[in-house]
Amino acid sequence: MTDVDKEFKGSCLCGAVAVEVRGSPVAMSYCHCHYCRKWHSAPVNAWALWPNDKVRMQGQVTEFRDLTQGVRISCAQCGAGVANRKPEANMIVVYPMTLVESGLKFEPTSHIYYSKRVLDLSDGLPKYVDMPVEWGGSGETMDEPPLTRWI
């Protein structure tokens, strides 16, 4: 089976919304922007990106268009977030923890909007002030914070 043929399946927390993706994601990263942090009520968001035609969802969902023009998708029953559609790019972010039980290995390549972080992370990945140039950002990176060790 080639990467193009791989299928990963998952669901929301209660199982009412099924998510299926085909092929490897275009990108995987962590996002530190205010909107992702607020939506997930977490200090950082893990995400994976696929073309719209590689993602299928079944079940009753609710959609919310945020100020970034993304369409955040969650289960109408349990409220768990499952995806974030990016209409201007014909792409959809699927939250990778939704798919890990089917074998998706989350392998991020960067941090985006790291300048907005509320949690320092030292993992060796590039830390973009906003986003890489190829994603429409400045491409400017930040130094990695020193590793803190607790005794």
> How is the biggest beta sheet arranged?
7 strands, mixed
Distance between the termini: 46 Å
Strand order of the largest sheet: 6-7-8-9-4-3-10
Could you tell me the radius of gyration in angstroms? 16 Å
Order of helices and strands: EEEHEEEEEEEEE
**SS elements, strand count:** 12
In helices, the fraction of residues equals: under 10%
Number of helices: 1
How would you state the average pLDDT, rounded? 92
User: Which consecutive residue ranges, at least 5 long each, have pLDDT under 50?
Assistant: none
Content of β-strand? 25-35%
Helix-and-strand structural type: mainly beta
Q: What form results from the Cα inertia axes?
A: globular
Topology:
Elements: E1 7-11, E2 18-22, E3 27-31, H1 34-40, E4 45-51, E5 55-58, E6 61-65, E7 71-75, E8 81-86, E9 91-94, E10 111-112, E11 127-128, E12 141-142
Parallel strand pairs: 3-10
Antiparallel strand pairs: 1-2, 2-5, 3-4, 4-9, 6-7, 7-8, 8-9, 11-12
List keywords for this structure.
151 residues; mainly beta; 7-stranded mixed β-sheet; 3-stranded antiparallel β-sheet; 1 helix; 5% helix
Walkthrough of the structure:
The chain has 151 residues and is mainly β. 5% of the residues lie in helices and 34% in strands. It contains 1 helix and 12 strands. The strands form 3 sheets. A 7-stranded mixed beta sheet has the order 6-7-8-9-4-3-10. A hairpin with a 6-residue loop joins β1 and β2. 28% of the residues are buried. The model has no long low-confidence stretch (mean pLDDT 92).
